Amino acid sequence: MKIRTQAGFTLVEMVIVISIISIVLAITYPSLQRTIEKYKFENAAREVVSDINFYRQKALAESSGDYVIKFYRGVNNKSFYRVEVRDGNIYKLVKTVPLPNNVIFYTSYVMSIGANGIPTMGTTLRIQQTVLKKAYIIAITVATGRVEMSSSVYLN
Prior knowledge:
Layout: H1 11-62, E1 67-72, E2 80-87, E3 90-98, E4 103-105, E5 109-113, E6 123-129, E7 134-140, E8 147-149, E9 153-154
Antiparallel strand pairs: 1-2, 1-5, 2-3, 4-6, 6-7, 7-8, 7-9
């Protein structure tokens, strides 16, 4: 007579494993959410710097007209910026970029980039994350047109 052995898991074993996985997920979820918020914030700040540099280069290459980047603080933690190009006396919208939730500009600002690729006014932009209480400072120098992003700083 042959003895049959069955391979597999019992219902009790499956419930125990699912319970352990649930507990581990419940413990790590807040940390995961914070990491995702941090990534979105860093990515948004880098995208702002990248767009400023891109439109500086584009203005220099085209040697005509102005590019205007308008940074809007927005309401309810919804900030965005718009890029426009001047065609004669008319400004045409190039693109609008919304920032992720809880990522805002500290204040609204308008930046104009001349045909030489250099901003007409230097400024310091502050982009901040309201949940993480962190900010990046983006400095734009008039003389050289250089755009620099600071390391993140904590807000009080």
